[in-house]
Design brief:
By secondary structure, the chain is α+β, with helices and mostly antiparallel strands. The protein has 5 helices and 4 strands. The protein is globular, with a radius of gyration of 16 Å.
Length: 119
């Protein structure tokens, strides 16, 4: 009985860690990354209040921990920050690096057009 309860707890924890939405924007980041910090200041505070944020909520993943992405990626992530748009666990597109607000929003707008579940 303890084994069954333990297995149920593990499955419940795994379900909680998996993405809850059909689409997400994964941001692969690394401690000490100045471009990650700039993204944190310029975009992250308002992201969830934007249309893109409602379509694809932001989820942070440590660079090098691709297993934590719970998604099939088209290629390894090598640079921080890298933004990967996923839908139903599959990569839709990515933005390698952060070059400022205007570039980020423009590139993200193009990627979100590829989502199949745009309301």
């Amino acid at each position: 009985m303890a084994v069954v309860a333990g297995a149920a707890a593990v499955l419940a924890a795994m379900a909680g860690a998996a993405p809850a939405c059909a689409a997400e924007l994964l941001v692969f980041e690394q401690a000490g990354c100045v471009w990650c910090q700039r993204f944190e200041r310029e975009i992250a505070p308002l992201y969830s209040r934007t249309e893109e944020g409602r379509l694809a909520p932001l989820r942070r993943v440590a660079l090098g921990d691709e297993d934590a992405a719970f998604a099939t990626l088209a290629a390894p992530v090598r640079y921080a920050p890298t933004f990967v748009l996923v839908e139903d666990g599959q990569e839709v597109g990515r933005i390698p690096g952060y070059a400022g607000e205007a570039a980020f929003w423009g590139l993200l707008a193009e990627m979100t057009k590829k989502l199949s579940r745009i309301p």
